[in-house]
Design goal:
By secondary structure, the protein is an all-alpha fold. Helix content is 77%, strand content 0%. It is built from 12 helices and no strands. The two termini are 27 Å apart. The model is unreliable at 204-210 (pLDDT under 50).
């Protein structure tokens, strides 16, 4: 475990603190033809070697640097817009390479695989993982279906209203439900009240004075958000309570 944490620390320092924006931009434009690409990989190797402290064996740091470079090249080749999916995938790939390196140098790879399988294939782990997934997209679709009549009513009141960021409501809802799911699992029900209080701070720009959006629309939109929020919270709490009964 200590080797994994050491290599993870090195990765965080090099990838997020010691990589100037100039390097990132040129790497994205030139890929492996950028000199900063090789400087970044060299830094990964050096910092990993120093932090790990295996002075007589530089191979783990060298192997990790090569793996880091390959992962970065793949990301640069396919991620032209800097999307969230590729960012998460890139970091997951780095974490896997770090974990494998740590397990190999401690000769604990077979044992590590068995521990992971034992941890994964348990009722508690599978229940939590499945419940978390249910709390995200499935409930989004479910709440979306329930609130569809009100969205249609709002669309009739203000057909040209443009007061929402694209997909912002969906991401806000999923984030809230995931937090609530975790709060229920750890029995921190008071934290849910904090979330509700924080959500009450949400306000809509009053455009009725300028005639852009009617007061009726603003009032009904607030009610729509409140109803959707309560439905979303109720579903997340219900899923979490079911999961708790399974282990």
């Amino acid at each position: 475990m200590i080797e994994f944490l050491q290599l993870l620390l090195a990765h965080i320092l090099v990838d997020f603190y010691w990589q100037p924006t100039k390097w990132v931009i040129e790497k994205r434009e030139k890929s492996f033809r950028s000199k900063y690409f090789y400087l970044h990989i060299a830094l990964v190797i050096i910092v990993s070697y120093v932090v790990l402290g295996y002075w007589s064996n530089p191979v783990p740091a060298l192997a990790l640097g090569v793996a880091h470079g390959i992962i970065d090249i793949v990301k640069i080749a396919f991620d032209k817009k800097g999307t969230l999916i590729w960012f998460v995938g890139d970091q997951v790939a780095h974490l896997i390479s770090i974990a494998l390196t740590a397990l190999i140098i401690t000769s604990a790879l077979p044992a590590g695989v068995e521990v992971f399988k034992t941890w994964l294939f348990t009722t508690k782990t599978l229940a939590i993982f499945t419940g978390a997934l249910v709390s995200l997209s499935p409930i989004s679709f479910f709440v979306g279906i329930l609130t569809k009549p009100w969205r249609e009513e709002l669309a009739k009141l203000a057909p040209n209203a443009d007061d929402n960021l694209a997909n912002a409501g969906r991401w806000i809802g999923m984030s809230e439900r995931l937090l609530i799911f975790v709060f229920v699992l750890v029995s921190q029900f008071s934290a849910i009240g904090f979330l509700i209080a924080a959500k009450s701070l949400l306000r809509y720009n009053d455009k009725s004075a300028s005639g852009e959006i009617s007061a009726a629309y603003i009032s009904k939109k607030s009610e729509y958000v409140l109803v959707g929020t309560l439905m979303s919270y109720t579903c997340a709490i219900a899923v979490a309570l079911v999961v708790k009964t399974l282990y």
